Amino acid sequence: MSPLLRVHNLHMSFQGREVVHGVSFEMQAGEKLALVGESGSGKTVTALSLLGLARGAWVRGEALFEGQDLLHMTETELRGIRGSEIAMVFQEPMTALNPLFTIGDQIAEVLELKKGLSRQDAWQRAIDLLNDTGIPEPERRVASYPHQLSGGQRQRAMIAMALAGEPKLLLADEPTTALDVSLRGQILALLDSLQAKHGMAVLLITHDLKMVRRFAQRVVVMENGLVVEQGEVAKVLSHPQHAYTKRLVDSQPERNVFEPVSNAPVLLQATGLQVHYPVPRPGWRGWFGRGAFTALHGADFELRSGQTLGVIGESGSGKSSLALAALGLIPFQGDFKVEGQSWQGQPEADLPLRRALQVVFQDPFSSLSPRMTVEQVVGEGLQVHAPDLNPLARQIKVLEALADVGMSEEQFPGLLARYPHEFSGGQRQRIAIARALIVQPRVLVLDEPTSALDVSIQKQVLDLLQRLQRERGLSYLLITHDIEVIEAMAHHVMVLKDGQVVEAGSLDRVLNQPESDYTRSLLAASFLAERPSSA
């Protein structure tokens, strides 16, 4: 039986630099194949090359789709293939969807161009497609703009648009990376059911091996533009042969933390913590004042020395508001103390609290100034909290902080004079951690510290944070939606939903004996991706 897609000896170069080196793989009609690798492995550009979307790339080799070579088609010929024969679901729907047109307009456009439907028929078909993808109230949502939908709804709308042309092959590029854990499970189940219903082949591009186990039948593993291993999912992931595949499989976060003493001093204590945001009132009422949206309703918690409190919940649950309130960066109501002291809202009075409580943000690329060198980034806190240090003493402390996170001049010549963009994502996060540690804080607020990183880099950063906690007795307020990170790091867990604390307790009690239906749904969604596919 001839394959639906046969990619043979694919090479790709950008500005004379080859990034894909002789990639070859095949797909049968109706098959689910996963293309796996970390950032920079070449998996996404390989998929983009099939539709001529890798702008500026020089491509050679073969990509035979039903016997036609996609790589040698003209732009006009490719337009006939895109959407109708091969469709793509991109990683971030907010940037892939046009913000100036409604969801219905964008789906109907595909149907009018590819299927020749009238405007009225295309609009009705758009409603049917949204209904098929599980969007509630499709008759109303079809007239919504992308910003009026949630992240999961936007991704479903993108899938509906991709299905509009009834393609034989769907390219899904990290379709769940930007979503909460429960939404990931929902989107994966949706792709599974739609694939079975329409009989289309799906090329899933991802670095998430849990998703691969759950969804795909075969897997192709890429490293640095090369295919290093491929075969049936169960065989490759159970008995990997290549060192890189073994490293990916072994990247599961591991728990290596000490249990803090029960009478350790309390460093953070919140009682009735509330956060409100002003919002405009509808109609004429908005002339006389603004309303308020409550993002956090009366949270109570405490964090002891050497302890990690994991705060989990989906987008909009109030996690980030809690973190910002704890850092004294937004107004809040209720009582919150750092080592027994409350935020005063005055820079000089709050200075000791800011030294005791530091933060590591989700995305190290955006949290580090691109205009500052590593020495300036890491040493910035010393200028505020230790202004009497001379430049040499400050530089020594910067080097010590970088050494604590595993970075040295021997590994990175000219380290102090380099800029953040010269480092990988994991290295930038280490720099961000060094910046927080240099003022010797007692508590770190970790806001999704690994969600922007590849799986193997995520494990390295978690191992580093565990080591620093063991050696320094640090306390962590860990904000995340990743159950695996919670399992690896937390001693106690607090579950948030719609700004409410729905459950709190020890890690073992919350994960193994959850009392809330919402907690159970989060756990079920997290473990969904680990179940092998029935295909």
Q: What percent of residues adopt helix (DSSP H or I)?
A: 25-40%
Shape: globular
Estimated share of beta-strand residues: 25-35%
**Can you tell me the CATH architecture of the largest domain?**
3-Layer(aba) Sandwich
CATH topology of the largest domain: Rossmann fold
Describe this structure in words.
This protein is of the alpha/beta class and 535 residues long. The protein folds into 3 domains: 1-85 and 169-191 and 200-250, 3-Layer(aba) Sandwich (Rossmann fold); 96-166, no CATH class; 306-330 and 343-528, Rossmann fold (3-Layer(aba) Sandwich). The protein contains 21 helices and 20 strands. The chain is globular, with a radius of gyration of 25 Å. The model is unreliable at 528-535 (pLDDT under 50).
